[in-house]
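Here is an idea for our session: we take a single protein and study its fold together. Which protein we use is up to you, so please pick one and set it down. Once you have written the record down, we can walk along the chain together:
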Amino acid sequence: MNTDVKKKPVGRVKHIPQRTCVGCRETLPKRQLIRIVRKIDGVFVDPTGKAAGRGAYLHDKYACWARGMKGALASALKTELRDDDRVRLETFMNTLPKEAEPSG
């Protein structure tokens, strides 16, 4: 009997954090979504994903942002969006690609 059999090292599967888009409720890896954070001085887009404060996530799609701005985003952040927050977020939202809706 051969006792010199080498065992393969067991590879660990790296955990990938999942987050839900508040616009369409789709769950995706955290890095594929844009984080919006509520801070003391307002609501901001968080490009690093690491800013302190309560966060919510949206796709980089105009349609998800439009749905989120109707109330889902404010609810997820547990706050009301002030006028200056809304202007800041809509400015970012207008830079996103507007996808053509599928007909049919």
In short: The chain has a mean pLDDT of 89. The chain has one domain: 18-93. The chain is about 25% helix and 20% strand. The first strand starts at residue 18 and ends at 20.
